[in-house]
Design brief:
The structure is a homodimer. Chain A has about 260 residues and is an alpha+beta fold. The first copy, chain A, has two domains: about 90 residues, 2-Layer Sandwich (Alpha-Beta Plaits), CATH 3.30.70; about 150 residues, Alpha-Beta Plaits (2-Layer Sandwich). In chain A, about 20% of the residues lie in helices and about 30% in strands. Chain A has five helices and ten strands; from the N terminus they run βαββαβββαβββααβ. In chain A, strands 1, 2, 3, 4, 5, 6, 7, 8, 9 and 10 form a ten-stranded mixed sheet that branches. In chain A, helix 3 crosses helix 4. The mean pLDDT of chain A is about 95. Chains A and B meet through strand 1 and strand 4 of A and strand 1 and strand 4 of B.
């Protein structure tokens, strides 16, 4: 009689992933030959474990958006330590994607549904000309004078709390456009000459509508340049969309910084 | 009798140039199809002015080295303002090269021979894995523990003043390997998690040997990890080369920050 080893059970792993989004068509795997972060990660997992998986992620970042704190989960059979899996994955990923950390997770852990909040940062700079060493991860704002960052912070303050953000984007799932914002902060960073101003906007919320952060940044910059008043912003937050110019800031300045869990 | 306008005289212009060196085979134009920063700048000048020039530069940065303060000079006939020339050049340059400023210069201005000093910065980080958003402009140092940055600063202090740097590289021109170092400083920057340590080394000198900054950084990192003693570094500075391990740090972390003039 042949005694077979019982089929080993798969373990759920949770990992924090960072990527430079420049050359990717967003995070989420698509049909065909499209280059996505998810496809690159799943290919590395398959090379290392021999198992084809479909991973889950906390946020589906758009084309050109970066991340330092994306959270993913996947199930594989792995006979070595999590540290071995982490090392093997990094050795099989391209230079612009890395696994920052990796650990075992409860079998029902879901990076999107279990998330309490997401933190995004958006970096922008005002300068007489493009700055080649900032440009990959920041938006060169086309204004000739420094933005009024105090007005921008006052505008950012208006977003705090629970609001209907319908004027700032469509829901990615479900119907509700109400979101709760926990943090909304405009930081001034040291600007390398000849850059006039280097700003970073940080926002933490329980969820985001499609293009929401980029549309908020577009509005903040218009407040900072005097093209939009705090009253107009307040009206937009109260649901009056009208001729509200809902211009999204470019993807290059946006980075998913962290996802928090209970 | 035909009265021709006198042939207009060319004016010398001086410009501060920034570039992301990643895709270039260094600054200096080479024979053939090689992609260099100089060739890209000269092509933009020709497109804008219709004149083919050979520009002069303060420093010939190597393949993969970046700059935010490279200084160039060139002679063209230009009937509009320097601001117009600056705008036109930026409109004709690729995203990874920009002219930060441009002004008329005396006809005998030479960016290399007239320079009093050059300032370079080298950025490096210690982290358990590659950080995709730092990696383009910094060296991921392959050590498991944080470097001793106080020992590194003590080593950096040893370089101050006039020394024979023969152990740190060959001269790019002439015979002398003696250089005068005005500033040599190890800064600790805020490290984004999971990065253990983010360091920037700044050095200003009257001139640099070939690969000198990268070899100094290689030595500083070995001091910081305990692999090289201050005594060995002192001996290397006194001319004892022997089995001195002259490992250069990678190009990606290096940036030409400024060139100073009297």
């Amino acid at each position: 009689m042949i005694r077979a080893d019982p089929l080993p059970a798969a373990t759920r792993y949770r990992a924090v992933v960072a990527y430079d989004g420049t050359r990717f068509q967003g995070f989420q795997r698509q049909a065909g030959e499209t280059l996505t972060v998810q496809a690159v990660l799943e290919a590395a997992i398959e090379r290392v474990t021999g198992q084809r998986v479909t991973l889950k992620a906390a946020g589906r970042t758009d084309t050109g958006v970066h991340a330092t704190g994306q959270v993913i989960a996947f199930d594989v059979v792995w006979r070595h330590t999590p540290a071995d899996l982490w090392r093997a994955l990094n050795a099989n990923l391209p230079d612009d994607v890395a696994v920052h950390s990796l650990a075992e997770a409860p079998p029902d852990f879901h990076p999107r549904y279990d998330a309490r909040s997401r933190v995004y940062e958006y970096t922008l700079y005002v300068a007489p000309a493009r700055h080649p060493l900032l440009d990959r991860y920041a938006w060169h704002v086309p204004v000739s004078q420094a933005l009024n960052n105090q007005m921008m912070q006052r505008a950012a303050d208006l977003l705090l709390g629970t609001h209907d953000f319908a004027a700032f984007g469509q829901p990615t799932q479900g119907e509700s456009t109400v979101r709760q914002v926990f943090c909304s902060q405009v930081q001034t960073l040291p600007a390398p000459p000849p850059v006039t101003q280097l700003l970073r906007y940080r926002i933490e919320a329980n969820g985001f509508l499609y293009h929401m952060v980029r549309r908020i940044v577009g509005a903040l910059v218009r407040v900072g340049s005097g093209a939009l008043s705090l009253e107009e912003l307040t009206r937009a937050l109260e649901g009056a969309q009208g001729d509200w110019p809902n211009q999204a800031a470019p993807a290059r300045g946006l980075c998913l910084i962290a996802v928090t869990y209970e």
